[in-house]
């Protein structure tokens, strides 16, 4: 028998890419289970599918940084910290120190839908009831017919997993000027934020203040302590954008609306900023 659940959950995470560096991503998860009927005449109760499988996905990859362990990634344990170093295109470098729950090592040369699918199948199947002998997973991006961007960030004030210093989203952006949608402005900001790391001004530190990792002259450094532990990051300045506020989606929407208003004081603006799929914030200026 076959059971399927479409739109089971959304994985919001970042991954290390050999060309692009840290890439924020959001993938919708569709799940198919193959197996025999249990004593309830079910393959698995839908409520259990949604609860158990989503929990496994959340614990292993959601809101983490996925690492392609087979190529150009170095891990070093230092007490409770894991120090990550990644070399990518044109001799660029990213370094991060974090608790173990902030990253997801995947035994592959690169992180893509195929390698993450294989990782999830190998992780999930052994944890399911014995009557299930095969699972299929389809990972897909949201179908967006307008402008979007990939961004990574960390939220030190968050009690949940958003506090992890490099996790991210693939997010749609909608901008209205004087009540009319503006493709020009949407394109402008989508390009400005493509593959960006958004950092809060108050989290920036001097390179010599780093405790666990080294920096480079072209890097921006940031660090903070959150409920899950201590985090620090050294990343190319050219792929960052500093906000004078936190980098929650509410603050991102407000920041964009105010920036648009400052550049065009005679216009009124509405910004609809998304955080991954089907959720976000609206700001006016």
From TrEMBL:
EC numbers on record: 4.1.2.50
GO MF entries: 6-carboxytetrahydropterin synthase activity
Pfam family membership, one: PTPS
Top-rank taxon, per record: Bacteria
Catalytic activity: 7,8-dihydroneopterin 3'-triphosphate + H2O = 6-carboxy-5,6,7,8-tetrahydropterin + triphosphate + acetaldehyde + 2 H(+)
Pathway(s) the chain acts in: Purine metabolism; 7-cyano-7-deazaguanine biosynthesis
InterPro entries the UniProt entry points to: 6-PTP_synth/QueD (IPR007115), 6-PTP_synth/QueD_sf (IPR038418)
Residues making up the signal peptide according to the UniProt record: none
Similarity comment: Belongs to the PTPS family. QueD subfamily.
Protein name stated in the entry: 6-carboxy-5,6,7,8-tetrahydropterin synthase
Organism, scientific name: Pseudoalteromonas ulvae
């Amino acid at each position: 028998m076959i059971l399927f659940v479409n739109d089971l959950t959304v994985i919001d995470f970042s991954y290390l890419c050999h060309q692009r560096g840290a890439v924020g991503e959001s993938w919708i998860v569709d799940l198919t289970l193959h197996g025999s009927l249990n004593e309830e005449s079910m393959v698995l109760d839908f409520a259990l599918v949604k609860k158990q499988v989503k929990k496994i996905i959340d614990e292993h990859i959601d809101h983490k940084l996925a690492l392609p362990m087979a190529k150009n990634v170095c891990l070093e344990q230092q007490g409770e910290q894991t120090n990550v170093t990644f070399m990518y295109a044109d001799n660029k470098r990213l370094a991060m120190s974090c608790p173990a729950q902030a990253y997801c090592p995947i035994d592959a040369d690169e992180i893509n839908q195929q390698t993450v699918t294989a990782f999830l199948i190998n992780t999930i199947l052994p944890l399911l009831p014995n009557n299930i002998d095969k699972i299929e997973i389809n990972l897909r991006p949201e179908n967006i017919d307008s402008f979007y961007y990939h961004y990574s960030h960390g939220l030190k004030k968050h009690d949940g997993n958003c506090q992890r210093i490099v996790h991210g989203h693939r997010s749609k952006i909608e901008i209205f000027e004087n009540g009319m949608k503006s493709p020009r402005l949407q394109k402008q900001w989508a390009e400005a934020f493509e593959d960006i790391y958004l950092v809060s001004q108050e989290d920036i530190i001097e390179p010599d203040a780093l405790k666990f990792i080294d920096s480079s002259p072209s890097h921006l450094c940031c660090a903070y302590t959150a409920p899950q532990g201590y985090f620090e990051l050294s990343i190319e300045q050219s792929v960052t954008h500093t906000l004078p506020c936190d980098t929650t989606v509410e603050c991102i929407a407000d920041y964009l609306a105010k920036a648009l208003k400052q550049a065009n004081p005679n216009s009124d603006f509405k910004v609809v900023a998304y955080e991954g799929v089907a959720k976000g914030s609206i700001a006016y200026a």
